[in-house]
Amino acid sequence: MELFRSHILVCGGTGCTSSGSTQLLERFEKLLEQNKLTKEIKLVHTGCFGLCEAGPVVIVYPEGAFYSRVALEDVDEIVSEHLVKGRIVSRLLYHGSVSEDNTVKALDDIDFYQKQKRVALRNCGVIDPENIDEYIAFDGYKALCKALTEMTPENVIDTIKKSGLRGRGGGGFPTGLKWEFSAKQPRGPEYQKYVCCNADEGDPGAFMDRSVLEGDPHAVLEAMAIAGYAIGASQGYIYVRAEYPIAVRRLEIAIRQAREYGLLGEHIFGTDFSFDIGVRLGAGAFVCGEETALMNSIQGHRGEPWPRPPFPAVRGLFGKPTVLNNVETYANVCQIILNGADWFAAMGTEKSKGTKVFALGGKINNTGLVEVPMGTTLREIIYDIGGGIPGGKAFKAVQTGGPSGGCLPTHMLDTPVDYDNLIAAGSMMGSGGMIVMDEDNCMVDIARFFLDFTVDESCGKCTPCRIGTRRMLEILNRICDGKGEDGDLERLENLASNIKATALCGLGQTAPNPVLSTIKQFRNEYEAHIYEKRCPAGICKKLLSYLIDPAKCKGCTLCARVCPTGAISGKVKEAHLIDQKKCIKCGACMEKCKFGAISKK
Amino acid sequence: MKSLADLEAIRQRTLDKVNLRREHEGTRVVVGMATCGIAAGARPVLLAFMEEVNKRKLLNVTVAQTGCIGMCRLEPMVEITLPGEEKVTYVRVTPEKVARIVEEHVVNGRPVLEYVIGAEGKA
Question: Would you tell me which residues 74-133 of chain A have a C-beta closer than 8 angstroms to some C-beta of chain B?
């Protein structure tokens, strides 16, 4: 055995990789070599720690020193001070990780982590995802062994059912029930069944599945094998988007290592159960996150949904019974098998058990991934964990559920988050994206943004989605351009209810939600756009005009010089004037003015 | 891989390597490694501790380093804290003394009194 006195964990998630963590890793390697520390100190490339805002993140054990926003030059200091001399470089520590008495807090005591409960993310940022042994050291593949050697397929399904686990991809369908439907189809070598994993995470702002795949790929493989055993399938497919290159690479490494150990393949753990997994890459169509479109795509067809029923549990991939679950759902399965249904059911609310991972984004201090028990309030997530809104701005709304969800305003901040509460509030859980908006966000513009996304991503197979959402977008564009008419809101609501009722798949059925929920919660903003031709948040450009206050203008000519369209006129030392016809509302003049004479209204 | 025992073998083998990252209440061996400590020869002492802990497969022991403790003339200094006990500080530690400290103190819980602070000069 080799003993290391210290471990350096460098985050290898997508967030930190894009802020340069790979270079940090190389620099550490080089400096450890130079200082002859390679035998004493272990360098580990891990998955995401969740606090992406503070990336790139480096953690040094045994102290648990949490270094944030580490620059390449800082590596030299960490090596020479911390690793050689044992002095923690406090200037680089994450600000929340230092207590008032200047001692370093343990990682779990940092505000960001303290209220979290990491089940699905338990190994992310802890193990080296490219090393199966580390996964096994943290109880990996024990659940599979337990299921295969001590439990019948019925036991497995019962356990999952009793745990109350519901689909984490958004729909919230009980996972155990889904497995049971497939399991009831004829079983045996002559009956092919499939287990699929939906890793086509497409909601803008959601990245929890990516983090699980990057940080703990074996957890998904193991859970899929357990599902295969439960329903009687011998083949699994992971459908992952090609835009996640790190996740794809780690999955492939993980599958190869699992095969080498015989944890995938023939006669796993010496039983009659055989199971293998293949990776299929998605080409980036949002609709392929819909289960039937996803299966079409795996089959090599166009990513278009097909009508249900029959449901995939009965007739799915290649016409065979198929269980399709989301990455995060699978990430919970092994823990449930190991710790029991009661352990899992003890967390969460009455109808939503366990924890949920949320991707915090938008106007929030701690952008990143958080995992909390179901029933945690929005306020706790946004303020206590997320650190609130930057720049002292006022909270306006939080968007949950991505393009299928809705916006929840201030008075709903104390809503405990679970599947049913969010639906009752006019939004939905979705995959767990949480986009926070402050007073500077225009709700009409937000609705337009999401609808623009779904219009782009509509596959075009059914008319309500293909044409209906486009008509809605046209109306929203008109409203934002100051050409809204009386009756537009009613037209939007009418179109929305028809689309929801008649679209073929989840994409179309939920596409109107952002519009409906913003109309419901922020009707006054819509009315200001339509009747007063005014954008209260100052976002919709066509409704704005930039004005120069003649009393404040000193006639320095700076604004006239930066104006790209020559819309500003005036003589030196005299008040200037903006020609509203020429102005393109770029705001360059306002930025440059030293006297605060220019305002937008 | 045919059984739980195979899996357990890999788990045990790897546990040693990831042990540092798990929460545990164990014995801490802390070597003073500021400039003074390093100049007095703390690095060979640190390495000797690691080797000894390694050899005896003491899973519950972390070997770490710290900065200057303040009595540079007594370096290399090593602090050992057993769970639930007061810290014991060894001074002028050499690699040769390490095996005995580990055996008597870390393993058997009896500090090597002749090496601890305050005892120097008397021995």
Answer: 84-87, 108, 126-127, 133
The ipTM of this complex is: 0.74
> Residue type for A543, please?
L
Instruction: Name the pTM for this structure.
Output: 0.85
State how many domains chain B has.
1
What residue ranges do the domains of chain A occupy?
A: 6-110, 132-344, 355-438, 443-531, 545-600
Within 10 A of A203 (CB to CB), how many other CB atoms are there?
Answer: 25
Of the candidates A52, A46, A86, A87, which has an alpha carbon nearest to the alpha carbon of residue A68?
Answer: A52
CA distance A2 to chain B (A): 7
- Could you report the per-residue pLDDT of A233-283, keeping only the tens digit for each? 999 999 999 999 999 999 999 999 999 999 999 999 999 999 999 999 998
Angle A382-A385-A389 (CA atoms, 0-180°, nearest 5)?
45
Share of chain A above pLDDT 90, in %: 73
CATH class of A355-438: alpha beta
The Cα–Cα gap between A443 and A439 comes to 10
Closest-CA residue of B relative to A272 is: B2
- Residue B66: enclosing H or E segment and its boundaries? strand B61-66
Please give the helix or strand (H or E) that residue A395 lies within, else none. Answer: strand A395-400
DSSP string, A82-102: IIIH----GGGB-GGGB-TTS
Mutation site, A2, A4, A5, A83, interface B, largest B CB count within 10 A: A5
Instruction: Determine the structural domain holding residue B55 and report its residue range.
Output: 23-115
Distance from CA of B49 to the nearest CA of A (A): 10
Task: Give domain status of residue B66, yes or no.
Answer: yes
Say whether domain A443-531 belongs to CATH 1.20.1440.230.
Answer: yes
Q: How close is the nearest chain B Cα to the Cα of A103, in Å?
A: 13
Instruction: Report the CATH architecture of A545-600.
Output: 2-Layer Sandwich (3.30)
Per-residue pLDDT, averaged over A62-74, amounts to 89
Classify B51 in phi/psi space as left (phi over 0), alpha (psi -120 to 50) or beta: alpha
Which of B4, B38, B64 shows the shortest C-beta gap to A145?
B4
pLDDT digits (tens, 9 = 90+) for B74-88: 889 898 988 888 889
Fold of A6-110: Glutaredoxin (3.40.30)
pLDDT tens string A91-123: 898 887 777 766 677 677 777 888 889 999 999
